[in-house]
Amino acid sequence: MTSTAKAVSLHLCIIVVLFALNFLLPEYHRGILSRVMVLSVFAMGYNLAFGYAGLLSLGHAMFFAAGLYGAGLTIYHLGWSAWPALAAGLGAGAILALVAGFLALRTRGVAFMIVTLMFAQAFYLATLYFTTYTRGEEGLVLPQSARNLSFPGANLDPTVPATRYMLALALLTVILFLLLFLVRSSFGRALVAVRENEERMRMLGYDVFANKLAALVVSGVICAAAGAAYAILFGYAGAGFASIQYSILPLLWVLLGGAATTLGPIVGTLFMFYAVDVTSSYTNAYMLVVGIALILLVLYFPKGIAGAVRARWLPWLP
Amino acid sequence: MAFGPYLLLAGLEGLVTAAVLALMALGLSLVFGVMRVVNVAHGEFYMLGAVLAWWFASLVSGHPALGFLLALIASPMVVAAIAFAADRLVLRRLNYEPEATIVATIGLLYIIQQLALTFFGPEARPVQPPFDMRLSLPWFGYSAYKLAVIAASACLILATWIMLTRTRAGLLMRATQSDRETAQAFGIPVDRVYAGVFALGAGLAALAAVLIVPIQQAHYLMGQDPLLLSFIVVIIGGLGSLRGTVVAALLIGLSDGIISMFFSPTLAKMLATLLVALVLVFRPQGLFGTAAR
Amino acid sequence: MADHRKAGELTRRTALGVLGTAAGLAAAPGFIRYAQSQSSAPIKIGFQCHRTGIGAAYGRWYERVTNATVKLINNAGGINGRPVEIVTEDDGTDPKRGSEVIEKFANQHKVDLIYGTLFSHVVVGSAPIVGELKIPYYVVSEGYHVASGKLNRYCIQPGITDVKAQVRSVAPWIAQNLGKKVTLIFPDYAFGHDHRDFFEPAIRSQGGEVVAKVAIPPTETSFTRYFPQIPRDTDVIYHVMVGPAVLTFVKELGEFFGSSGPRLFGFIDSLESVALDSPGLEFLEGSHFWEGMPRYAQPDQPDYVTFYREAVGLDENGASTQDSKDVSAAAHMFGCWETLYVIKAAMEASGYQGPQDRAKLIEATEAMTDMEAGREHPQGKKLFNGKIHQVFGEQYISQVKDRKLEVVHRTSIEDGLYEPEGDYTAMPF
Question: Structurally, how many domains does chain B consist of?
Fold first, then answer.
């Protein structure tokens, strides 16, 4: 089997397993997995910018929040239905990524990190400044009826857990295969090359700025998709999602799972969810346990879980 | 209140903020500059400094100045020791690889925060200032202790500068910062310098916290916002430049207060944040930094 | 929940044995089965507790009061002859974690209902999932969110009054006793905006006016630079700063004004779990506070209040009997006690037997009106409005005398009433 065929079949297997789990998992864990799938899409968007293009951004919360509020505000205040709201979320993410990227990509490395952090902070403060519309940190509850997604022939209600799981899975599948295709395409390879040696790529005639900007915009749109999906599937939009915590979390998930791997973000998100959930059943001091787990993981699996797997056993893993 | 006194007040408040911020950012700048690592747990060292200051002060009864003095000396030393241990046990084993260090310091952040929550508690606890004097100006009253903080911070920054430029230890640090490989070739024990710098950085953050804790309170979540501000100061000031750090701390400390005189505070914070970002966009090496990193 | 179960449930269970990891997960804590008959199986209440995060200081006391109340209820025979069991989960005072914890309660711990949340953003963040899972959510939050009609029929607040009523209740007394020109100092987010938006019309109807509104951005740690915005002709400063920085706020207020300055009226929310004799709080002497329930033992307090204070472990200064430095969140935690007794009363009135009766439980609660002051309602008498799922009660206004709080006025229920803005009883379950 060629490595492409292997990669595609692995990804298909994973989707099939996730599909089957909808029927096999107990209710609670199915609920967790629905959330993990949507948040892994967020991590996957971040992975494109950080893992593949090497752009260490600390501001991706603003893209997630742009999608969240793009969908949330249009549903709540303008009475839009789910599909247009989703489009609004995606559009908001795209525009924000374009503007932020255009400015921020003039910098590199540590300065880029701070600039993205500052943009995200300004966005967070804006969500609080407009508390009249966003209800700030308290947030908005989206009416159940407005969250229905209409398909030809059927109306899918995300308040039904099984439907929500399937919708999350659908989103994950689309983005996963989109990214699989992207990273194996010449664009993806160019991004990795830029990450490794920017000067050389410039000398070879590549428009480095355009490549990075494209990566950031695609990344922003994917994160916004996750945000809009979160609003529609879980019915809540609040300023907390724009705070710095949600810029650090995708970084954590990607690093844990394995940066620059397609499956790494899913693994990392899943691991962190269960690390917190399981330890909080046993002890009040679950943060302590999670902190120790992180340090141990980074000492012994510095490439992340999927990264280590790729390095030691499966070199064809994308 | 008339504009003049208002400006004076905003200025004084800005100086206090700048004083504490400069110390904390200095610690971060050293770590960043010499070791080239992002220490996400720097804010937690700051918080530990405040929490330990409360504990040391509570050991001593009698005049609050005694407890405060004990805290001023002991707290940064304990925090520096903890940072030293963290460097030896964790960061050195990771070979200071940037991404791994970020994850490791996030883990450290969780651990320190949880330990503070468990042993210190969730509530905010005050520490008595060493002296309680109120200066009565014609337009408003002002705490004399705050003025003392400004003076103390200036002295400590001066002391750090002297240490960096006039002592052998400082020379080793600056050499390692300039070029790690060449420093090693000259026989400088780079690993030990790194451990020392990490400890010094943490100690400076703790010192800043001990100074501020009689004004604010010790609380287990207090490290989060100062961390953000310190990063900004370090980058704007320029990596590896002590002068840049101090100037940037002054600028940011003063501007925050003065901008908020004219705009609604949240809007002022938003504008200040965007301003910082734009400064970096158009001058990525910061105000005094050397070539872009 | 019943509508989501599929016919193939037995096949699911057998399939679990195949998936090793899934089996391991299924054995995770929370799956307790009782061999006894259904009728003496405990009633499980999921307590969404702020054990970590910014609400941790409140969460600790909420937990103590909850445990004390449940002990009393169980010693008296439980509810409908069944013991009450509290299952506690930490929500980290975070809306995302809060909504995950709701799912954990409903789907893993399989509780009968969920209760005990304080911070508004967690309540609002959890509301959607509560509505989808159709599980009763008895919050102890004092936010206006439930009463606004914007949540769903499963969200209910029968044990603690809401901020709109509280703010409206104190306006008459302020206008009559402290002054008519008020400057508001409040945090610049939803919680603070509520105070601003509810107080201004209330003081205006008393012939007063708000002369300045000073919004302080979130996480501000130093306040002196905002004080110049307070106009010279202010009679009263109304302050509701919350968070760890409040001690700084009071201290700096004192440093700025010295011995001259406007009168102060604050909400004790600022100083819950903070000792009033802390250094720096001297400036509060003589000023007034809204209290949900008095922190300090009052000389004329009824027997049932003494009983309540003893049961939850409060000394006469409102601190823990185990540790006099551990100051309680007295103005809010009574809500846990009263809410649990309301749940008991509603379960008895509806003949609650299990999750299939959840809608009946809500309806029984909606039917409640007057609640007499007494052992079940030590804070004072209450009036419940079933349409907006919110209870109304008396508020306390206290003055700081010799570093302690002494009640000087009790507002009436009518002082705080307002026009309802929604009707949950018209919504389907």
Answer: 1
